[in-house]
């Protein structure tokens, strides 16, 4: 039986925080630590927190409290860790607090609490590291931090300015993941489209080729790995138009996740985001001309300070014109330290909720119609899960966790991670129903 120290781990927040968790877990496993889901038998517990909005802060504080109550030896890291005073004020007994990506601080705290075991076999970790996602897909983080200053967001102050990983280093990681069985890579960053700007798009060398640390060149090379490549979190810079031909040519998935946040030029200005909505609509048409199969996903905030009925109507009109495929929406909630808190015109909570509901109903109707149009088509689907009477998969239009799914009836012989062709037989507001029998 292993006598290695056991670590409990809680990972909260977005995929970027998840990748940080994976790095910490990989390092712990490399040093021979074991993991346990049972707080009571853990030698200490690491809580990787999120601090994005108030509800995420509450969830993080609850997780710390639970770990302290059940175990007592707790190390806190992640976005909320950047505000150590908030945590200290409530939980004086926490062993160590560090901000996002401060892996050294986390590891030092673990070493102090429970020194690493001396077991020569414990360093046998998988090449691709320890992953929290299913075996067949993985997040690939290409940079950290952000140079933008959206007024509702405090991520740049928590995670710092843009810091990109050189293209060859990131390609090597991607290659290891693919060799370990990953079939879909989800490329993430705080600002994916800004990749390489801080490195002046430096040229790197990989497999005898020169690869620039720049979005287009980098994803073109990723496409050579022969797995699904999905780009997430693209800020609407003009240069992202250059990746559209790669989507058209099936080098990467025809999927653009591009948060517009709003459509009223007045609100976008207050948000400190690009405000030329007309141009955005033109670009959406161009994207669809270049790549007719494209899925466009976006997120929006309703009830931002200064949003009157007029601005909300502008947003609804945009939704009508843009006919986006996938949409997420949040009611604005002030984040401590964000510039938007200084703005006049706060929208009452009940109106925010009303607008959110109206917005989502409108988009649900658009989504339902778009999915209905897919009935009778053949789609490639990656299988996430196989149950007795159905399997759950995702088409090229569905990112894990955030989009809909494809329910496949009669899943005989299917395995998670397989990519198969299915025939769409029915649809709902957000999901598709399919049959494996493409001749049916
Ligand atoms: S681009 Fe994203 S991470 Fe950067 S400031 Fe804006 S919302 Fe925050």
What would your notes on this structure say?
The chain is of the alpha/beta class. It has 3 domains: 6-123, Methylthiotransferase, N-terminal domain (Rossmann fold); 137-372, pyruvate-formate lyase- activating enzyme (Alpha-Beta Horseshoe); 378-435, Nucleic acid-binding proteins (OB fold (Dihydrolipoamide Acetyltransferase, E2P), Beta Barrel). Helix content is 32%, strand content 22%. The chain is built from 12 helices and 20 strands. Helix 2 (54-70) links the parallel strand 3 and strand 4 (74-78). The mean pLDDT is 90. It binds iron/sulfur cluster. Residues 146, 148-150, 153, 155-156, 190-191, 235 line the site of iron/sulfur cluster.
Layout: helices, strands, pairs:
Blueprint: E1 6-11, H1 15-30, E2 34-35, E3 44-49, H2 54-70, E4 74-78, H3 84-90, E5 96-97, H4 103-113, E6 137-141, E7 143-144, H5 155-159, E8 163-164, H6 167-179, E9 184-188, E10 203-206, E11 209-212, H7 215-223, E12 228-231, H8 244-248, E13 255-257, H9 265-271, H10 277-290, E14 295-302, H11 309-322, E15 326-331, H12 349-372, E16 378-386, E17 390-395, E18 406-409, E19 419-427, E20 432-435
Parallel strand pairs: 1-2, 1-3, 3-4, 4-5, 6-9, 9-12, 13-14, 14-15, 18-20
Antiparallel strand pairs: 7-8, 10-11, 16-17, 16-19, 17-18, 19-20
Helix pairs in contact: 11-12
The structure holds iron/sulfur cluster.
